[in-house]
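protien #1 (seq + structre)
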Amino acid sequence: MSNFEKKFGKYAINNLTIKLIICYIIGYVLAYAPIKVNILGFLTLNPALVLKGQVWRLFTWIFIPPNDSNLFFILIMLYFYYSIGTTMERVWGTYRYNLYIFTGFILMIVASFLSYLVLYIQLGGQSAYLSGMMASVSANFNTYYINMSILLAFAATFPDNVILFMFIIPLKMKWLGIFYVGYLIFEVVTYIYNGVFFACFPILASLCTFGIFWLTSGRFMHLRPREVKRRNEFKKSVKMTPPGVTKHKCAFCGKTEEDNPDLEFRFCSKCNGNYEYCQEHLFTHTHVK
């Protein structure tokens, strides 16, 4: 546990996924309510209007739900987000999951202002056109890409988990994650080719959120000089593995490579001693001091 977590961990919001889904439900109710006023239009993340004093938009944009006109697929989507979100909160812990989500929120807000800046430069500060363009672009700054960053984190944490794509096709999460990244890259290239670079910023914010997680989660732990030295010393001390003795064993659950040949093992740099953990417990175990 870091000093930052010790100090601010008590402020973490429990069951954050459920609270976000409640926000989506409120957003859908407002979107499909039989009223003439477009209430969601007053909640979007529009930097042009934020700079004019409508600061509530910095917070209310989380009520803008991912677009879908089919009630059945809305329910399936909400259940899927609930499933992967609550799983990640249990695996990472409330504090780290909160940190991931709110980092995504902050990056999305930064991305919206960068889009505004690019449009301002392209249009030469013509406020009439700028306001209209930002009104249409601001709808893209919603929680859709935040949810997709959670999907990427889930795919990276549980790459071999299998889901039924389209309720029929069994598909490992790592392939779903790879497909989604490829689709995002295609979207970015398409936007750039069409000269609407400012539309890329929500996508880049989502990828940056995942990238920060990847770089700070220990995924590159095996490349750190300290870990390379520790592994080399361990290999020198073990000249030969006797028959019937496994090479890897999780210090938490006791699993070895014989239990699952695809299971990955890593040494924890924060534990005192050569403690090795499987991929399921590398980030969730209590460090040995």
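ok now protien #2
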Amino acid sequence: MTQTGLQNGLIVANYGRHFLVEAADGKRLICHSRGKKSQGVVGDRVLWKASQDEGTIEKIEPRRNLFYRQDEIRTKSFAANLDHVLILIAAEPEFSSSQLSRALIAAEAQHITPIIALNKSDLVEPFERAWQWLLPYRHMHYGVLPLSLKKSGDVDRAELLKLLSGKTTLVLGPSGAGKSTLINLLAPGALAQTGEISQALSAGKHTTTSTTWYWVDKAVDEAKPTALIDSPGFQEFGLNHIDPAQLAAYMPDIKPHVAHCKFYNCTHLHEPGCGVIAAVSNEESASSPREISTNRYKIYSDLFAELSQSKY
């Protein structure tokens, strides 16, 4: 406890103006934000003050980063102080290359390491198609982790823990990708815990739409525990907070070619002597790590136009 009666805590669940805060001794209680605006997000380190059986968040400590999306209407914050964003997609149902790229760009902009995981490797033909389609991403520094969460759980658990050990990881994924299976594999009983949290808040309807923090192995390693943050799915991922002039810097397959552009303010859309345009492959999935696939270049072009329109 601090001298002013404030206590250190961690936001582990977010339900609008209600937060579940974990105190230094591991106990959890409902806290409310002070004032009209609710600024806290899961992963925030906070100072809070007890009030009867609940508490009030008095201060949010400075963040290392904040993973969020932004469209013309609103900003949606997912979580703060992250080491990884794990984007889980599956061989089936088909996933959106645009949504995947947008999430990767948002992570890059906040200096958070993204991990792409492709689930359902037991579905041989769909998995081969998806694996081939992800070739440009496998060439990047992300790599792509193959998974079969329902078939080879123990193998996948060991592989994932090797990657995520001692880190805080936000798990993102579209409906049907296996996000709940992954969370329960790494943190058994996690969904039951979510239900209990919702019950405590008398807000059971929020069970699948709130962002929640789970410890994977805190009891094993108190000094450097592993944590997962489960986040609700999303249909859209706005990037209005990204400056279009910085977009290429957040796309690892495009960024190296910018140095070869003739003009320092090149948009990589039409200028003569553009290093990016010169590197675009004729193939939808570029076979060489030195090339930019047509699919990825189209994502860049479309995003640049969208972000330029929203800025001016």
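Residues 202-208 have pLDDT under 50 and may be disordered.
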